[in-house]
Amino acid sequence: MKLPLQEIAGLAQRLTRPVQFMEVCGTHTMAAYRSGLHQLLPPNVRLLSGPGCPVCVTDPSYIDAAIELAGHPDIIVATFGDLLRVPGSDSSLEQERAAGANVRIVYSPSDALVLARECPSKKVVFLGVGFETTAPTVAWAISQAALDDRKNFFVLCAHKTMPQAMDALLHGQAVKIDGFICPGHVSVITGAQMYRFICERYRIPCVVTGFEPWDILSAIKMLLRQVVEGRAEVENEYSRSVSEAGNPVAQRLMAQVFEPCDVVWRGIGTIPGSGLRIRKEYARFDAAVALDVTFVEARVNPSCLCGTVMRGMATPFDCRLFGRACSPSHPIGPCMVSSEGVCAACFKYEKRAAA
User: Fold this and answer.
1) pTM for this structure?
2) What is the architecture, at CATH level 2, of domain 1-350?
3) What pLDDT shows up at residue 2?
4) pLDDT in tens, 183-225
5) Cα dihedral sign, 55-257-271-206
6) Do residues 132 and 190 make contact, with C-beta atoms less than 8 angstroms apart?
7) Is 311 helix (H, G, I), strand (E, B) or coil?
8) What's phi and psi for 170, nearest 5 deg?
């Protein structure tokens, strides 16, 4: 049996032009850099990193709003650890916590709900950031808060959905994409069928895959075969976890609590229908409504190329801040902060290899 790299090399020889495949999952990005897959591929096959890190695509005005909430003495801000060090206009949640703000790291929205039960005199605001993977868990926490008639639990919602972002990247034609390596854990919820419109509308092949190096190489092989054969279909390499229809229970829960909305993606701009906001029936748990949160345009370092990198139009090495002014110990952009950020992955694995 031929190994994926051997099959990839054979298919690459049959190409009539170079091809670029984009992964739109931060876990795939980290796995590819950690395993050195970029260096193993033939010269005419290139991997691009897309907007697959939810922390990285969160608009900086959201970070500023979270920092403002943390400044209130009666509020506890509960967040996943990745958001803690993301820079806002003037500070970060980590800096605010060091200065005395009540900012807690939690590992799930249910932890934040427990915190609200344990601290009835405080308003607990959970920072709801993520794609379809985490949105059902936040929807569950909100539904449980409603059942408990919990009056001190809120969510500052910044959830996003992936298909519209993929559509926006192709519609803009800013970078040539010949195939998508689709996120495995998102697809567990949505199902592989979610990407069919990409194939039909743009004639771009899609492969849903897992997170081991073998999975990613298998996805690249499957995409190459589609390109060589002139096909554009959704294929599911990750069938051990992903079905065609996804998880209907999680989908119903999301539809019960959330509704689609337009939302700003850092580096891309406003993408219609790509966000999830809390429905009016649950507005009492919506921090933006119940606590009258104002989102103001944030100031960002104009030299930071995070947005350009997440559109596949540049690599971290193209940024003059990368590895100099911007590093994991002193991040300027979110791509250097998050455990799924392309700059963090590149700094940890490829920069060290190059050195």
Assistant:
1) 0.93
2) 3-Layer(aba) Sandwich (3.40)
3) 66
4) 999 999 999 999 999 999 999 999 999 999 999 999 999 999 9
5) positive
6) yes
7) coil
8) -75, -35
